[in-house]
Design goal:
Helix content is about 35%, strand content about 15%. The protein has about 350 residues and is of the alpha/beta class. It folds into two domains: about 190 residues, Rossmann fold; about 80 residues. The strands form three sheets. It has a seven-stranded antiparallel sheet with strand order 5-9-8-7-11-3-6. A five-stranded parallel sheet has the order 2-1-12-13-14, sandwiched between helices. Helix 7 links the parallel strand 12 and strand 13. It starts with a helix and ends in a 5-residue tail after the last helix.
Length: about 350
């Protein structure tokens, strides 16, 4: 009986040890399969107490034109032939005051090409086209005497519009020709006068004879044209077609298939500037340089300029940053350098220059 009792106690002890080991093993297994135990307070979890992981920033989507703005230029067409001449047409945004700071001057420096600047301040696209030949100017019937004498002449555009030669600068007007006779055009008290360069035969000029500017006479089909026009038109989405038609006429008059059209930048005076530039881009494709889009995104960084609060506010409004402007519309040296560089890059991309 005593032996049986001892055996029974030993059995009970062994079972207690066995059950204890099984419980501990179960806890270890639970810990391995559930590394994030939740407390009675549902907000007091392992995830709350652990340091928060920083959300990964989504990479900024590359601009579709990045290959044009930056890096090595992979030409769409290979350059061939002779080094061309570059002819720049525009308003005060093209004018050079010192022959070194405006974008045509930058183009000259970068390309090594001869660059002619036909910028005249305060002109709209029609006025620019008159000088270039895209908008024909006719002479009313007159007689040019044999002697070198100043004579009055009457000029009108082909659609009977007013002519604006010499209002704010020559811009490629002189020396000019009327009926094959070379001479100089003058504007005195609002009226035009012509004086032939040398003596010759007395010549009758027929009604509707085209007035030929020096720029028209000097044009070469191998020239590369840069047209930066339209700011003084203050175009809307519905009126930009007028600018497009005039620029097309200018290209036809020049006889050149090599050209760059520069987009407009003055958002303050052109509320629909996005739509205007979109229409120009749709019309001219790779020939169109949306310099405003580039300057808003890269202008300050590519110029090594830390944005000011005013710059940031400008960009939010779609305005060219103040650090790139000298006034409300005209660019400073940074603006012109960026514009010259981007026009140069586009010329390389199109195969116009080596």
């Amino acid at each position: 009986m005593k032996k049986t009792f001892i055996t029974y106690l030993a059995f009970i002890l062994a079972m207690s040890v066995f059950i204890t080991l099984r419980v501990k093993a179960g806890r270890v297994l639970a810990a391995d399969t559930d590394p994030k135990p939740v407390s009675e307070n549902l907000t007091d979890t392992f995830e709350v107490n652990a340091p928060e992981e920083e959300a990964e920033e989504e990479p900024e989507e590359p601009d579709e034109d990045d290959h044009l703005w930056h890096g090595d230029t992979d030409p769409k067409s290979e350059f061939s032939g002779l080094i061309p001449r570059i002819v720049c047409w525009g308003d005060s945004l093209t004018v050079s005051l010192d022959e070194k700071s405006a974008f045509p001057d930058i183009l000259r420096s970068l390309s090594g090409c001869e660059v002619i600047n036909y910028g005249v301040e305060a002109e709209n696209t029609s006025m620019i086209a008159m000088r270039e030949g895209g908008l024909r100017v006719n002479v009313k019937a007159t007689v040019i005497p044999a002697d070198v004498t100043l004579i009055p002449i009457f000029l009108r555009t082909e659609n009977n519009g007013h002519v604006h030669f010499l209002d704010n600068g020559d811009g490629g007007v002189n020396p000019c020709e009327i009926g094959g006779i070379e001479g100089e055009l003058e504007k005195l008290n609002g009226s035009y006068y012509f004086k032939r360069s040398s003596k010759g035969e007395r010549t009758a000029i027929e009604e509707g004879t085209q007035f030929m500017t020096h720029a028209m006479l000097d044009a070469d089909p191998e020239d590369v044209l840069v047209i930066f026009a339209g700011t003084n038109d203050l175009p809307t989405a519905s009126s930009v077609r007028n600018i497009i038609d005039l620029e097309r006429s200018m290209l036809e008059a020049a006889g050149s298939s090599k050209y760059i059209i520069v987009g407009l930048t003055y958002a303050g005076g052109i509320p629909e500037i996005d739509e205007v530039n979109a229409a120009l881009e749709k019309e001219f494709g790779d020939h169109f340089v949306d310099i405003r889009k580039y300057m808003l995104k890269y202008g300050l960084s590519d110029s090594g300029i830390t944005p000011t609060q005013e710059d940031i506010a400008d960009i939010e409004k779609g305005e060219i940053p103040s650090s790139l402007r000298m006034d409300y519309v005209h660019g400073n040296k940074h603006y012109h350098r960026l514009l010259g560089e981007q026009v140069y890059r586009r010329m390389k991309y199109l195969g116009y220059i080596p």
